[in-house]
Design goal:
The chain is an alpha/beta fold. The chain is about 55% helix and about 10% strand. Residues about 375-380 have low confidence and may be disordered. The structure holds arginine.
């Protein structure tokens, strides 16, 4: 595909001799100001001339190839470039003809390893709506990086370790026979946990027993380990139901427990570097030198290990095992301090190149319209219920709008899940969100179902046409109307959008883009008759529709939204 920015940069380099000129070129937000623009005030200092003058001189010097750049204009110190629309259409059509459903993908990440850590729920605790967000953002990033050619490793860093398991074991010993864990196990485990916590507060001897259980668990005691495994299996069964519905996958489930035997090394290494101090019996690493006022605790007073130490062990392990270029942690912003501390301490444990690759991809809170949820208060919505309820609602809408549709259940599943995924990935990560069914399932707003609906429309157009035309039978010159050109220019940007989304670790950039594509298609569709007696025109418009079909489908797939063929 022609890289127009690069073409312009080459021409500018010739006349300016400025190597990094490409990095100065911008894409104006207002297309009236050209497709690309060079703000000349950036050069004014270097060249000691007024921007307007520089722009005028460059315009004179540059030689144009009208097949590519149709016009150059000077406006207020900006040099604006207009790409020949026919060149854009040609290159987009050729590229899509070539790559089909791989359009927008690239090899830019070849040879680079990226660990994406996401979901990471806690065993014996509910999978809450915040976990839904890390799961969907992480899974999208996983797919996005893969599409760009990176070797991507998806890790579910399960919260399957810690002193709370000592409590769970004690609770099970005391009340295990009161609970039937074959039905709704997580809520029952939560109930047990709340009960034992209350008891521990009242009775110090119970607390002591819990601590002892955890020590036994760490030492590999059979009874404790078996119980722990039981809690883990029961939880995983529930989590897997959610992963299956969402079609989310991982390459590794190495959670906190996996690092149990790797923490000694961390503490010893840090001690040997002389950075560990004692504070009230606990081992800590002071980070005030690095501008972090709260020290990182690496071992508790009672000698048991801690969340942060397991994260440090994970960094060392991942560096060794995956030799990562980047290691992303898709975790709520509430853990900002934790990751700051861990990344700072990691400087004593791994090479600088790994430190530079560590990145906390923080995201905001999610609430339901009825207010914040809290595990403690028990007003949690089970995610599985939320997913199923949304699928049911989608089914009702379909039943009403298109009762004769085939595979209604399959379609309802795609629409329901699509609504949730879209909603979750429709704002930048850091924004807090309210999850509301009515907004998510609205077919007309900026929603998952809207994208799917436009996709289905491209399908029905293509069905009416009968066969996707051969590119050699397509005359791109007939697509010169405004709506067609705008649409194709948007399609041209697909790869760039994916790169931006990876660069910022923000899937919503793709979500927003797809909405734009759908809207521009809608305008194109309303303004142009696709099925017409003029076969030349029909071929070209049908081919453009096919391109939209590909982009919508491939883009949605990156986000984790599946497109129904009909709805
Ligand atoms: N299990 C934690 C939670 O549910 C999230 C783990 C985040 N990842 C990490 N490497 N610390 O809150």
């Amino acid at each position: 595909m022609i890289d127009f920015k690069d073409e312009i940069a080459k021409k500018l380099k010739k006349v300016t001799n400025i190597e990094e000129i490409e990095s100065y070129i911008e894409i104006p937000s207002n297309k009236e100001m050209g497709d690309y623009s060079l703000p000349c005030f950036k050069l004014a200092k270097e060249l000691r001339k007024a921007p307007q003058m520089i722009a005028n001189e460059l315009k004179e010097k540059i030689t144009l190839d009208e097949n590519i750049i149709s016009k150059v204009e000077v406006v207020n110190g900006y040099l604006n470039f207009y790409i020949n629309p026919i060149a854009v259409i040609k290159t987009v059509f050729e590229e899509i003809n070539d790559k089909k459903e791989q359009y927008g993908s690239s090899e830019i990440g070849k040879g680079k390893n990226i660990v994406v850590e996401y979901s990471s729920p806690n065993i014996a605790k509910p999978f809450h709506i915040g976990h839904l967000r890390t799961t969907l953002i992480g899974s999208a990033l996983y797919k996005i990086y893969k599409y760009l050619g990176y070797n991507t490793i998806g890790v579910n860093h399960l919260g399957d370790y810690g002193t709370q398991f000592g409590k769970m074991i004690e609770a099970y010993k005391m009340w295990g026979n009161e609970y039937d864990l074959t039905v709704d196990p997580i809520n029952k485990m939560v109930d047990m946990y709340v009960r034992i916590n209350d008891l521990c507060k009242k009775d110090e001897t119970v607390l002591e027993k819990c601590r002892e259980n955890f020590r036994l668990l760490e030492a590999g005691d059979k009874y404790c380990t078996d119980l722990w495994n039981k809690f883990k299996d029961l939880s995983m069964q529930e989590f897997n139901k959610i992963y299956n519905i969402l079609d989310v996958k991982f390459d590794s489930y190495n959670g906190e427990a996996f690092y149990a035997d790797k923490m000694d090394y961390i503490i010893k290494t840090l001690e040997s570097k002389g950075v560990v101090t004692e504070s009230e019996g606990a081992k800590i690493v002071d980070l005030s030198d690095m501008g972090i006022s709260t020290p990182c605790i690496i071992q508790k007073t009672n000698g048991s290990s801690i969340y942060a130490t397991r994260d440090l062990a994970a960094i060392v392990y991942r560096a060794k095992t995956y030799d990562f270029d980047k290691c992303l942690y898709v975790v709520a912003y509430e853990q900002n301090l934790h990751f700051k501390q861990v990344f700072a301490v990691a400087k004593y444990l791994v090479d600088e190149k790994y430190i530079n690759g560590l990145k906390h991809v923080a995201f905001g809170m999610v609430s339901l319209p009825s207010g914040k949820m809290s595990t403690r208060l028990g007003n949690v919505v089970k995610i599985e219920d939320l997913l199923n309820k949304t699928i049911e609602e989608a089914k009702e809408i379909i039943e009403e709008k298109n009762p004769d549709l085939e595979d209604k259940d399959e379609v309802a599943k795609k629409v329901g899940i699509g609504a949730i995924v879209f909603n979750t990935l429709s704002t930048s990560n850091i924004k807090d969100q309210v999850f509301d069914w009515n907004t998510a399932l609205n077919f007309n707003g900026e929603t998952g179902p809207y994208l799917q609906y436009m996709y289905v429309r491209t399908n029905s157009v293509l069905e009416k046409v009968g066969k996707i035309p051969d590119l050699k039978d397509v005359d791109v010159n007939v697509l010169s109307d405004d709506a067609s050109v705008k649409l194709v220019k948007e399609l041209y940007d697909f790869n760039n959008i994916i790169m931006q989304s990876a660069d910022k670790n923000e899937p919503y950039i793709i979500t927003k883009y797809l909405v734009n594509v759908a809207k521009l298609f809608s305008t194109f569709y309303n303004e142009n008759k696709i099925i017409t007696d003029d076969k030349n025109l029909q071929n070209a418009r049908a081919y453009l529709t096919y391109c939209v079909n590909i982009v919508l489908k491939s883009g949605a797939k990156l986000l984790g939204i599946q497109m129904p063929n009909k709805m």
